[in-house]
């Protein structure tokens, strides 16, 4: 079969399978009538839109109100007490909401910080650093036996314990950096309406009120009012001592020492008082100093006000009075400060004209009066401890003067 024959047969087969019937198909088509539905955009109800908007505002406003309330809600109350009492209120994020001075001493300490207003919004640790630094600068924590009390009041006991531990470390670091040897005491306080009432009535912190109550628990005959006027250091020592009575207080001890000094000029003299209520003989150490005169120390019985050491007019510049003190009038003990000085110089083999920086100070060690004598001579530095009753040299040290 030739190619032409093959093409012819294929064409015939295709024509039979799909006949050309266009006119027949068109004759069978009937036109269709369709219904057209116009599209109209749906109108939203203005009332519904307004309601939805209001609900959104309420939701957003309510959420914002919750955040605002949480940010300004007091979660913890931290108080720092020496004699100045300062209270810090903080939120859950440990941001300071307020810093409040609770007495006149505290107002003076915070005077450089806007009375505490400058610390609002600061982190608690930063605020505590600032307050402790101000206390040191004001002279409240420069004594080795001084103490600061940190109190944390919080309904969350775990958080209270954590803050207490962290703040104790913070305060201790600040005191070390300031070369202060003051002790750091701390406690957690259970909030109560009675404790808050006592704190408000006596213008102290709840932490100090709690400490006063610990003293009264040992001796319920003691007055809350009188105890509230004492420093944290005095209250802490009273607790160790068993709270036998109310001590005379630092102001009264200073007055007794001033009176004993006789010729002391009150306008130019400085007075430092250090409570030592936990010693064998509870007493106050009072140091009096005045330009041009040697510093003198007095020991005053903490409960009776009796002068334990330091005699009348020991700060007088009259040489005759100095001689009188040295012969026995300058101390209740056997020798006076001039005799202690002479004993040290004699032992060193040096005359008074050969020394510089001569200092004689009284000290009370386990109920015994001692004199600390220091001076420099010939490139050497000398330190002596002399028994105040016998004049015996108890200790001495000699080293290169650097």
Task: Set down the secondary structure blueprint.
Elements lengths: L2 H15 L4 H7 L17 H27 L3 E6 L3 E6 L5 E6 L2 H6 L14 H14 L9 E7 L3 H21 L5 E7 L3 H10 L3 H13 L5 H5 L3 H10 L8 H12 L8 E7 L6 E7 L6 E6 L5 E3 L9 H11 L7 H12 L7 E10 L2 E10 L2 E8 L5 E8 L2
Helix pairs in contact: 5-6, 7-8, 8-10
Plain-language structure description:
With 402 residues, the chain is of the alpha+beta class. It has 13 helices and 13 strands. The strands form three sheets. It has a five-stranded mixed β-sheet, with helices on both faces. Strands 6-7-8-9 form a four-stranded antiparallel β-sheet. A hairpin with a 6-residue loop joins strand 6 and strand 7. Helix 5 packs across helix 6 and helix 8 packs parallel to helix 10 (232-241). The longest helix is centred in the N-terminal third of the chain and has 27 residues, at 46-72.
User: What string, H for helix and E for strand, traces the elements in order?
Assistant: HHHEEEHHEHEHHHHHEEEEHHEEEE
Strand order of the largest sheet: 3-2-1-4-5
**Uncertain stretches of 5 or more adjacent residues:** 312-333
* Largest sheet geometry: 5 strands, mixed
How large is the share of residues in beta strands? Answer: 15-25%
First and last CA, distance: 134 Å
Apparent shape = elongated
Number of strands: 13
Share in helix: 40-55%
Radius of gyration: 44 Å
The overall pLDDT average reads 80
Which secondary-structure class do the elements indicate? alpha+beta
- Count of DSSP H/I helices: 13
- In terms of quaternary structure, what is this? single chain
